[in-house]
């Protein structure tokens, strides 16, 4: 069955691999997917939830805000992404094309700025909650910071992911600095550093969750590349 192209693609001889940014009909959907993903990423959703938590006396609304923003953003970005890539046959998709420099820089700065603001609010809020809660969250935050640093080092060591790793430095630095500030800030509230059972549980649970999420992401990327090469 012959594939009928709905848009004019560059000839195979001149440009074998095509990106949505090369096609006027696909650019709008691709831009929408990228910026939706940038403004609704789990990191951004977490900071928004932290800001909301600062103004309300219950954790229910922040959790709902986090889940709503992250889930809706994920599916909205995925839908626009499919629309953009749908113009290009699988064999001709340029999945490794670097994105515009200013796009990635703006996305990194947005997340880093929100993390800095969220850290101050979280530090203030932690002085009002019980020690068990902020002990658990501190353990989780330490695990997240550690995983981010490990991922950054691994990406910097790989040539294919080095450019993306450089753009992740601003928000990783902001995250590590924020966690350091929070740890110092809540120290007077009595985090349990002598018998750090709650801190340890927060660390272990978050580390296990992050490891599973990372493994699932790697598996999805492997499946996508395998389907592209076999198509």
Secondary structural class: mainly alpha
Q: What is the N-to-C succession of helices and strands? A: HHHHHHH
What's the gyration radius in Å?
21 Å
- The total strand number stands at 0
Major sheet details:
none
**Which oligomeric form is depicted?**
single chain
Stretches where pLDDT is under 50 for at least 5 consecutive residues are: 1-5, 189-195
Mean pLDDT: 77
Tally of structural domains: 2
Shape estimate = elongated
Distance between the termini: 14 Å
Question: What count of helical segments does DSSP give?
Answer: 7
Task: Describe the fold and architecture.
The chain is an all-alpha fold. It has two domains: 19-97; 128-231. The protein has helices spanning 24-39, 42-55, 60-85, 101-126, 131-157, 162-185, 197-230. Helix 1 (24-39) runs antiparallel to helix 3 and helix 5 (131-157) packs parallel to helix 7. The chain is elongated, with a radius of gyration of 21 Å.
């Amino acid at each position: 069955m012959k594939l009928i192209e709905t848009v004019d693609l560059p000839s195979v001889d001149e440009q074998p691999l095509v990106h949505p940014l090369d096609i006027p009909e696909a650019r709008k959907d691709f831009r929408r997917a990228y910026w939706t993903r940038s403004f609704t990423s789990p990191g951004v959703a977490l900071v928004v939830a932290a800001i909301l938590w600062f103004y309300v006396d219950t954790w229910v609304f922040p959790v709902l805000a986090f889940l709503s923003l992250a889930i809706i953003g994920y599916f909205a970005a995925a839908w626009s992404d499919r629309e953009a890539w749908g113009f290009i046959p699988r064999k001709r998709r340029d999945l490794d094309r670097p994105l515009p420099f200013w796009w990635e820089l703006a996305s990194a700065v947005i997340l880093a700025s929100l993390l800095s603001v969220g850290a101050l609010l979280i530090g203030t809020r932690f002085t009002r909650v019980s020690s068990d809660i902020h002990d658990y969250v501190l353990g989780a935050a330490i695990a997240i910071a550690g995983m981010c640093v490990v991922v950054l080092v691994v990406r910097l060591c790989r040539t294919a992911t080095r450019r993306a790793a450089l753009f992740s430095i601003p928000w990783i630095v902001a995250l590590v600095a924020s966690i350091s500030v929070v740890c110092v800030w809540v120290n007077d509230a009595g985090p349990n550093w002598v018998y750090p059972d709650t801190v340890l549980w927060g660390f272990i649970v978050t580390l296990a969750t992050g490891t599973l999420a990372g493994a699932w992401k790697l598996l999805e990327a492997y499946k996508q590349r395998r389907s592209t090469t076999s198509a």
